[in-house]
Each structure stands twice: as C-alpha cells, then as structure tokens.
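pls ignore typos typing on phone
MU-OXO-diiron + seq
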Amino acid sequence: MKAVKIIDGLYWVGAVDYDVRLFHGFHLTTPRGTTYNAYLIIDDRIALVDTVYGPFAGEMIEKIREVIDPKKIDYVIANHVETDHSGAIKDILKYCPRAKVFCTQRGQEGLFKHYFENWNFQTVKTGETLSLGKKTLQFFEAPYLHWPDSMFTYIQEDAVLLPNDAFGQHYGTSERFDDEVPEYVLMSEAQKYYANILTPFSVLVAKKLQEIKEMNLPIKIIAPSHGIIWRKNPQKIITAYQQWANGQNDGSVLVIYDSMWKSTESIARQILEGILSENIPVKLIRSAVTDRCEVVKDILTARALVIGSSTVNRGVLPSVSSILDELEGLRFRNKVGTAFGSYGWSGEGPGLIAERMKKAGLEIIAEPLKIKWVPDEPELKASYQFGQKIGQLLKK
Ligand code: FEO
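k done
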C-alpha cells in the first residue's frame, strides 16, 4: 500500500495490520485488525506526527520515501508513548538523528523509559505552537486520553486535528476515509474502542471536548492514530464521544448470563420475556460464548444490566466474573441493574454479582432473584414477573 495524500502537504504514511486479532497483550479483541497511522507534513520544514508499531517501521519508511527523503525530516511529533505509535521512532531517527522530538514532559519521561535514548527532545504544553512555514502546529496536552503523556496536535491553517488514540477504531482496511467504509461498521468499531479503552477516563474526555468546544477551533478533519480518518463528518464522532463520555444510553437492557445446566438460562429467558412485555428493548447475551469486548461495547450504551450466573464454588462462572472485572475497572456512568441465578446448596452467586455491580458504581434497582435447582412453573412465572418489574422500574 502506498502513502495516501489527505490534503495538500499532509500524507498518511502508516501501516495496516490486517492480521492482529488480540491487542494490548491479549486483552482487546480486534477481529478487523487495526492500523497504525503516522502522518507526514510537508512544508518549508518537514514534520512526522507519530510513527507505527516497531515491526511495521520498514513499511512506514518506504511510504515516507515515496513523498520525501526521510533524512529531510526536521521534527518528529510524539503524541503518545505507547509502543504501537512510538515503536518506529528509533528507526526513523536513524535517518534524521538531529530531528527535534516534540512531546509532553511525561512523554519525554516515557519515551526515555522505553528506548533509553537521549534524543533531541523539546517538551510542549497546551497552546504552544510550532511553525513549519505556511502551516502551524498547535499542541494540546490530553492527559489520560488515554495515558498520562497523551497529547493532540492541530494543524491550524488546515483545521486538521491529529488526536492520536482519541476518536480511533481498530479497523484494519485498505480504505482510509469515513466516506469509503460502511458507517455502521465504523461507528460500531469506534464504540467498541471507546468502551474498552476510554470509558475509565470519561470525565476527562467530557472535559477535553468542552475545552475544545470553548476554543471554537474549526475542525475539518480528524485523523486519529488507529483506523479511519474522519473527513466527511468529523462532528459525528465528536457528538458520539460527547454522548458516551456523558453516560448517555439508549434505554435498553442487557441480560448477561452463564449457566451450567440450563436452569440459570431458563430464568434468563423468562426475565427477557418479562422485560419485553413492558416494551423495553432488551438483548440476551450468554457471556461464555460472546466476545467480552463486544459485551463491553454494548454495555456502554445500555441503561440497565441484569446479570446472572449459576453459583459455583461459592462464586460465579468465570465468564460472568470476567464481565464483573470489566465493570469494576471501566466504571461506566449512569447504569442500573440487578442479578439472578440458580443454585444447588449455598447460593452465593446472585448476591455476589449484585455486590460487585454496586462496587462498580451501578445502582441496584431490585433485590437479586435466586432459585434452587431447576425452576418449576411458579418459579418460571416469578422470573417473568422479575423481568416485568425491572421493565416497570425503568419506565419510572
Ligand atoms: Fe494506540 Fe495508546 O496506543
């Protein structure tokens, strides 16, 4: 794949990783692969904004060479330390060892602690600028979006925002722009990315979006460090981020469960029917056979979670526990829920689930439902009514 011209003097020189299926170690699933986006700015002086993951350094350098001799790079802008974007800095700096490396103070500390090199660093703060000739770069510190070192770079004259990980998606395709790909795939990947990576920083995301809004910066293009570039309608992803960061939801319920011998499953199905009878949108998810990161994506926009598990070894089944781990770590805003499950003798499961949901910041709206062994007809009816009650409570 070749370098892609975005506008005059701005080129995508990144790499598409079609094969990666697990990201951040083994934590995040990436069924569509990803891209590592680096951007080359050509002016009187030449700047490279971010690089790519180390194994893709050769691809990036080849693309830069199509546009300009890499020895001519004057500045490398390191918006973020994480190795998927900084991995090829050491490779490019071999061509232009005197290039200045612009980053935040924490960026400098982080880059040194990753590569142990005293490069020609220049640290920047919010509002500082760098003139390339006709184009001016403006920097914005963006701590915890999503690392302490993160920053955004903005090309003033072209109204192009290069926000690194923010507004990205793990979407590895040969298409580069939002007008070239199906919108539902793009938005779904963007939501999954936000839910799994940015949710814990939602308060800071909302604050940063507000800060940008108050600055009245025109934004014609958003070119993130992963996935597709937003040029058709950059406001679409800004609005989506505002909604996600503020904990807005679509009013739906997720019934998430796992079951050993189908008893908890029958309860789950009755709860589903009960909620449906109240005309509330609801989705049934068996956690053991569903990609955990997809469940997290759905949780982001749901109103309520009803989580169930058989009681096993005084606890819950592993796939349910893993969803509860995510809830505790990600700390979604404005969610409510409750728990349920079948048990044989001790029956701690539903209580434990509710306790952990509460710890994760969810409001428990109904006493958890627990049923011994296989639910009989009256118990199935009680499960249905439990669902109805949840639906009614959500209407209030
Ligand atoms: Fe895509 Fe935080 O690295």
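The mean pLDDT is 97. Residues 3 and 66 are 7 Å apart (CA to CA). more later
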